Amino acid sequence: MNILIINGPNLNLLGRREPDKYGHQTLTDIVDALTAQADSAGATLSHFQSNAEHAIIDRIHQAMDTADAIIINPGALTHTSIGLRDALLAVQVPFFEVHLSNIHARESFRHHSYLSDVAAGVIVGMGPIGYALALTAALNLPSKQQN
Ligand code: DQA
């Protein structure tokens, strides 16, 4: 089972960026924990972070024939990007949307997501454990190919 984790704009700054909202763990801390979780389930985890919308869309296209599931925290692109929605719909890989903070308890412009209605699942407001919960859900999906 191959799972791709994608983190969007500004999430490379986790640990230093608004820690009151996003916590003290770095992205490396989070990805290391997810890698250990995937390893113990016999799955392969890939991680991609970019601040550029086109790079994220290109990475999603690459995942079309290889990933069984995508876990994505699109950052601010959640609230703006029809292109990201279209890419995820195009590749037809089930995806889980994760947000560290509870976007529904924040500014009104964060309440709408262009992805949630086409996601396999959405986790908000649970901090880094949200990624682990999404990975647990992804590991329970049927696998496309044998590893
Ligand atoms: C976020 C929430 C978004 O509104 C924000 O733009 C982010 C992080 C979260 O993880 O809580 O960059 O996706």
UniProtKB/TrEMBL annotation:
Q: Does the keyword field hold Amino-acid biosynthesis? A: yes
Q: What is its EC number?
A: 4.2.1.10
GO biological processes: amino acid biosynthetic process; aromatic amino acid family biosynthetic process; chorismate biosynthetic process; quinate catabolic process
Pfam families the record matches: DHquinase_II (PF01220)
Name of protein: 3-dehydroquinate dehydratase
Q: What is the scientific name of the source organism? A: Alteromonas halophila
Residue stretches in coiled coil? none
Tell me the PROSITE patterns matching this sequence. DEHYDROQUINASE_II (PS01029)
Family annotation (PANTHER family): CATABOLIC 3-DEHYDROQUINASE
Catalytic residues, per the record, are: Y22, H99
Q: Where is this site: Transition state stabilizer?
A: R17
Query: What does the record give as the organism's lineage?
Result: Bacteria, Pseudomonadati, Pseudomonadota, Gammaproteobacteria, Alteromonadales
